[in-house]
Amino acid sequence: RILTAKGKNTCSAFTVWQPKPAKKPCSAKASCQKCCACIESNCARSCKNTMSTILAVADTSVLINLIHSGCPAKIVSAAQISLCATDQVLKELKWIPAEFESIRRHIKSVTLSGNAHDRYMQIAQEQNKHSLDDGEATTLAYALERNLPVLMDDRKGLRACKREKVAFLTSVDVFRRALQGSLSRAVVADAVYRALQDGRMQVQPDDEKWVVRLIGKQRAKGCLSLPARLRNTL
After folding, report:
1. What is the pLDDT of residue 95?
2. What is the pLDDT of residues 77-110, one digit of tens each?
3. Which of 55, 105, 174, 215 is most exposed, with the fewest beta carbons within 10 Å of its own?
4. SS3 per-residue string spanning the chain
């Protein structure tokens, strides 16, 4: 998805804030060749034949959802995402050691240094203003310095990504990529349901219909992490 100053469309491998209106996205009927060309210009939808591996900096919120999905390694592999996380984020996951081990070996630990640490200090000074925690601040700082997309769900963190013009994917984006990859619909549906139930995964408004269609209305009704206004309409 490309997020512009005027709104969103659903035609990209990940989300990125752009101060100017984006070009018209490729249509759903675009050929794989056209889709590949669009990916190179950051205006593409991922598909099985064109999806390339992404290196992304993961925040705690997305890692928790992956852990609670029950099959984090399968999801990450099918989504073709290489994970790295800051030392602070990995410390925040120590409270779930058994579950954490299921995905720990798939995460590269990174440390802030030099310019990235300076970025963190700048962001940290505004933490009270924007209510960012240390994990989100270090994740954003590292992504800014390395020009990498962020994996994040927290709304205040996503607002910070937009302010800093940092590309990002949410947990739902990761599960969607896994479905577009090698995993079956049933496997991804169960993983998303467990992330909603056990991980209390946040779902952005634009993704709510996709999630409901995937897991089904009956299961969606029982997911308290989904907004009440949505559950009351099912």
Report:
1. 75
2. 999 999 999 998 998 887 776 767 777 888 999 9
3. 105
4. CCEECCEECCCCCCECEECCCCCCCCCCCCCHHHHHHHHHCCCCCCCCCCCCCEEEEECHHHHHHHHHCCCHHHHHHHHCEEEEEEHHHHHHCCCCHHHHHHHHCCEEEECCCCHHHHHHHHHHHCHHHHCCCHHHHHHHHHHHHHCCCEECCCHHHHHHHHHHCCCEECHHHHHHHHHHCCCCHHHHHHHHHHHHHCCCCCCCHHHHHHHHHHHCHHHHHCCCCCCHHHHCCC
Cα separation, 53 vs 47, in Å, equals 12
In terms of Cβ atoms closer than 10 Å to its own Cβ (0-12, 13-18, 19+), residue 36 is middle
